[in-house]
Known about the structure:
Blueprint: E1 5-8, E2 10-11, E3 21-22, H1 24-36, E4 40-41, H2 44-48, E5 57-63, H3 67-79, E6 85-88, H4 113-121, E7 125-128, H5 141-159, E8 165-167, H6 175-183, E9 188-190, E10 209-210, H7 217-223, H8 228-255
Bound molecules: zinc ion.
Zinc ion binds next to loops.
Amino acid sequence: MFVPILAYHKVQNQAELGVSNTSPKQFERQIKYLCQNGFKSTSIEDYVKGRSFGDKHVIITFDDAYTSVFENAFPILDKYNFKATIFVITKFVGEYNSWDYHFKKFRITHCDWEQIKELRNKGWEVGSHTVSHPNLKKISSRKLWFEIRYSKEVIENYLNSEVTTISYPFGSYNGETIDVVKSSGYEAACTLGHNYPYNENFPFALFRRGVYCFEPMRVFKLKLSNNSFAHVDDLRQKAFSWISQKGMLLQALKSN
Ligand SMILES: [Zn+2]
C-alpha cells in the first residue's frame, strides 16, 4: 500500500530567498485537509515494520529541525491529533542556521534539545539528519561514518531512546551511504524526490515529496496520491532539490 511521506522544512511567516518554507496558515490548511479526509499520521518505523497497513496513512516529516517547527507546526499538528518525524542535525541543535539564504534581520534557528525532547515526549519520532549536513555522496568514507554513526549516538544519548531513521541531506545518497546506514543500525532512511516508491533500496531510500511555498492545495492533494499526475510534480521537486544544493554552495562561497 502506498503511504505518502511529506517533507517539510520551515513553517514560518518570515520571508526568505528559498522555496522550502510553508506559512503556518498554509500548513494548517493542509493538515486540516488530511484530518477531514480521514488520514492518520504514522511514523517511519511503524511504516517499515508493517504496522501502518489497513488505514489511510500519511507520514509528516521535517528536515533540519528548525525552531519554527516547534513553535508553529507542533501546535497545529497537536490540534488535529497528528504526530510527525523530525530529523535533527546534531551540530546545529540550538544554533543559528548558517547555510540557507536569509535576510540578516530574521536569523533562523534550530530547535534546542529541550524542544526536541518535548516533541519526543509527545510521541514524535526523532531521526538523524547527520552531524553537519554535507552531501553524503561527496565526502570521504571516514567522514561518512562519522556523519551517520556519530549523529545517531548523540541523539540517542540526549533522548535516551533508540534512533532508527535517518534523512539524507539534499536527499543525496549512493550504495556506500546505504551500506554505512545499515551497518550503523538504522532501520530506514529517507531521500527527497529522487526515487519512486518501492525502489530496490527499500526501506533505505524512502521516497518523500517535499511541500513548498506557493503551492496551491491542488498540488498538495496530488502529493497524497500515487497516480501519474503526482509523478509530474516529482520532476519539479528534483529541480527544487537542485536549487537548494546550489544555494548552499553559494552561501559557502560567500562566507569563505
Ligand atoms: Zn536538510
